[in-house]
User: Fold these one by one.
Assistant:
Number 1:
Amino acid sequence: MNKRFQSPIVLLGARFLSPYIFMFGLYVIFHGHYSPGGGFQGGALLAAAILLVRVAGGEKIGQLQLIEKLTTPIGVIGVIIYFGTGLSAILAGGNFLDYGVLPFPGVVEPAWSRYIGLLIIEVGIGAAVMAILVMIYDNMIKGEDYD
Amino acid sequence: MFWELELVLFVFLALAAILAIEAKDLLVSVVLMTAFSFITALLYISMGAVDVGFTEAVVGAGVTGILFVLVLFKTSRETKD
């Protein structure tokens, strides 16, 4: 366990597999409102695709896909998307997260308004979950030198 | 769902759990716990809860396994002092 060495075959396999997992995560997020899946599952799949390369390649190669400083802003943006959609529903005259009253341009039916609102929510949740899971990994690998 | 298939899944579930506890190497334990999680996801799906099974497969078999492997790399079995 203490011997750590770089294996090019493991790294090649991880690099081969990672884009497909990422693509599947995007599929799960964008089809989450009418099929199984959704923001959390898709975000966890995106995080798994990034963590796979980070585990296989070590610290330097893992930073090429998503640098460590970017994780916290992406998480914050995801939460802002979520609460922004919910609060704009309040401003439009409905309840919190009531997508039916959201005034999207060119949309008159409440069903389509709910469709688009749910899609925006899923994207926000996916970004937040992905960033936070990667951030947990990065903070664990850095160790405890916060004091 | 066929009860024979669920019986096989439950047998493998118990087998994975017992082997994960009894294994001496901690990496083997982590891999067997991942297998446990995956069989649990299959059982959820066989019971009709596709969404729960999906979450279990992604989080239990993917992210948790990676985090446990990371903890194994960060720690050592013998004490240094």
Number 2:
Amino acid sequence: MPESAPPVAPFRIDDELKEFIESGVAILLGAVDAEGHPRVAYGWGPRVHAGGDRLSVYIERARSPQLLSAGLRQIAVTFTDPVSVRSVQVKGQMLELGEPNEAEETWIARQRDAMTVSCALIGDPPHMIRNLWMDDTIRIDLTVERAFDQTPGPNAGQPLVSSEARAGEVVR
Amino acid sequence: MTTSAPLEVTLESIPSAFEGVIPAAICTVGADGSPNVTYLSIVHQVDERHVALSRQFFKKTDENTRGNPLAQVNVVDVATGRMFNLDLRYERTETTGPLFERMRTHLDAIALESGMANVFTLKGVDICEVTQCSLVPGNPPISWDNASVAGTVGFADLEAVSQRISRAEDLEELLQIFLDACRRFLGCEHAFVMLTDERGERLYTVASAGYGDAGTGSEIPIGAGLIGLAAARRQSVRVTHMARELRYAQATRAAMASAEDDEIPLPALASTQSQLVTPMLSRHELVGVVVLESERVGAFQAAHECVIGIIANQVATAMTLLSADGTEGALEPSAPTEAPGTAAVLVKYYPDDESVFLDNEYLIKGVAGGILWRLLRHYVDEGREEFSNRELRLDSSLALPDIKDNLEARLILLRKRLEERCDYLRIEKTARGRFRLQVSRPLTLESAEG
């Protein structure tokens, strides 16, 4: 299978999407190890960096040995609002791993609380949601290259186009 | 061909991980080597080494599994909070067969319930070999004793219910045994039974537990909504997280047609999170459905569905046998019941839909309405209070079909509606196949046909 052509312009996360990503949504991370095995893990506390071309997300060290040992290169992160079920997948390249500082841990806790509230709105018992996470996290920094609409429905899987690109030239 | 090593964790040991209370996550690999990660609505355990995944909207996931058969799925066992990673190898896609139909009915039922028919088109069911199932390290922070959810039913209990069913004297006793079993075996406090009407077109509620007096006599067309679809397809539908599933379907309950004035709403909880609808079948015929509800997520599990399915079919068979048994007991003497000196009640009857109104308040319609009208005519014209099921069966004006005799169910329904709506009309069973009409106020009968 030939390599697919790179997108004309890398995707950039705009303010609206940044607000969505940082609003306490549920997060899944996907990676592929050196043998080609897909690996999945829960992610927490996403932060979109200025310019919308980089992203940080945290995973639990204890729960993600397969993903961490996968020799992270390409990474997929899917953000889903439990209430509206709006879902966006961002794909990019691994930059580095890092230890979260105190401010980051506070940020993660706030986002987890927001997600718990969203889940409670649709009837999830809080203790059931609380069991989804552990405290010892590690930060993954990645580039933002492509994004896809992942909301269930006929448009699921469609590439998203940066608002910057939409305002100027037509991409593709 | 299965050549993989033994699984670290057997699939049979983690049944509640496949209940979908916490949605499963799946990661696949694209042709360009990039990962693709999303949620899955259904992961169904097929056997000890296979699971089935629903194929709906996941275009990328679908493309990926065709190019690269490997996938990893993460499931959460809600009973313990533990997570498991399942390494999968895609084998084949099924577009027909019992498993496909079961998953299709589930998705269609959710879509219908949210007023969005034909949105979820199940394209296929992907059967995947589980090459490994491993516990994700790390203990859940909260130990959650969920024993009430994961309760099991012993064979001795099942046999005891089976014997009670076989000894039931009449339909009402039979339905009570059924509802008692739902409560005892599943801890389910909210359940109702709907029976198929004489034409096989509608379901009507004949017995309920946990809803007070609400809902008796409510009707829905077979095929409508989640309950109607389970009946039409003769398949159980089990929902473990109604709010999430309806959200997933972008639910808009408001889009459903509003009820007419003379329609009785179905029994309902304020916030149903778990629902199990099981058809009652006898000789391939749909006799009715039993509906179990809970406000707790994950209240009904696969094992519960099996147990209720067994009991439902036995109840259905017993109902068929009871209908065929036309014997009647000896008549007890009766005394006049009408109290003198009270104001007359206006009973109005509309032959078009056989609806009956008491002092302009809707009471009942259909076959039960027709039965009541005839009983009241006999009472007013001839002073009769004693009746038999047999004479109603032979009353050609009631047009009860020979094939499906719902008379006893209609009488139960009528009796319950009278108890709910007034205090001066009662139907009291006096012997097997016999009953008495008790009237404690004078009646004025008026038929809309003039």
Number 3:
Amino acid sequence: MDLKVNDYTTDDGLTVITVEGEIDVYTAPKLREKLIDLVNKGKFHLLVDMEKVEFLDSTGLGVLVGGLKRVRAHDGSLELVCTQERILKIFRITGLTKVFGIHTSIAEAEEKRKGAK
Amino acid sequence: MAIVELSFSALPVHVRTARLIVTAVARRSGVEEALLDEVRLAVGEACSRAVEAHRRNCPDEPVHLELKGENGRFEVTVTDAVPGEDISGPGRREGSDASSGDLTSVGTPEDLAFALANGTVDLGLAVIEGLADDVEISTSPKGVQIRMSWPAEEAS
């Protein structure tokens, strides 16, 4: 299955990246390119919506860590929306729940962002 | 004892095929539905690692899998043909506690990204260590072998 990656930027300057499909060694480069492209366009506050991700492996985790490193270099942020237990489990066993902000919805992430300003 | 053997060219696109086959055989071997996601992910990680190793060293050699169901266990062995790959270090710990693949001891995301890039951390092995019920990683002059197993009902 192909990976579908789309994005939009809110009035608040948050860029939401919706990802659909399987993120693995074959498809992860597409997500990596999208993150690099957004950073190159000056989008440094990213929210990756993973609610339609059916599979995530360590290659995908590596891409997200790489994206976080890139946006942090510009004082930016990369957070996630994810409520799927099987995806969350991968973040937990690698300890990456301590590295990424993980939200239950886009709305919740937006609210927290407004509250932090 | 039932054995299924599979060899595939070291191409990322085939890792998904391997995952699908392993999941089907695991289900047929009586692995609980709740464990199938773990089997699929752990075997996918082992296959991805082998594919990457082959692409760097011997792209024409196929990756080999053996799936075995016996004595109430479903066992998967992924074998690559790259001798001498170093599999020690964080997320690469031989004989480590299989219940934890926590990598945050590596430090900040910047440190972790650097460690991932230079290969001192292997997220894939960390995931395997965290997911497989029993893991054994061995290196030989022929290559690296990752053997993982899960409990399974005896298949009818």
